[in-house]
Amino acid sequence: MTQHAEGSREPRPRRRGQGELEAQVLAALHGARGPVSAAWVQERIGGDLAYTTVMTILTRLLAKNVVTRERAGRSFVWRSTADEAGLAALRMRKVLDGESDRSAVLASFVTTLSADDERLLRDLLGEAGGTAGAED
Fold it and tell me: What SUPFAM superfamilies has UniProt attached to this entry (predicted)?
């Protein structure tokens, strides 16, 4: 038996999803001591990522109001507006957005919560919902 040329190829690097990239960019910004350039972000999350990709992600995050930018000469510097809890929430939302059966994912998540976490979630939902659900 002979080995095909395909078998000797090195595996391609795993492609990162948009949500994963956004989380990495936000984590880099959160770790910065102040506003930073897109090139600084690119260097922190891995030089294999194209500068234009980093700019696209930063622009998307700006549209979601989780980063701000300010003019610095001819370019911009960027800053995260989210804290650690906000970053975790964004990652959770991205996971949920990537699933086709949101109801099943949420149901599965809720059934694995501890009693204390379930109580906390119910309290938070009660605060967020107010009386909006009472009219339905």
Answer: Winged helix' DNA-binding domain
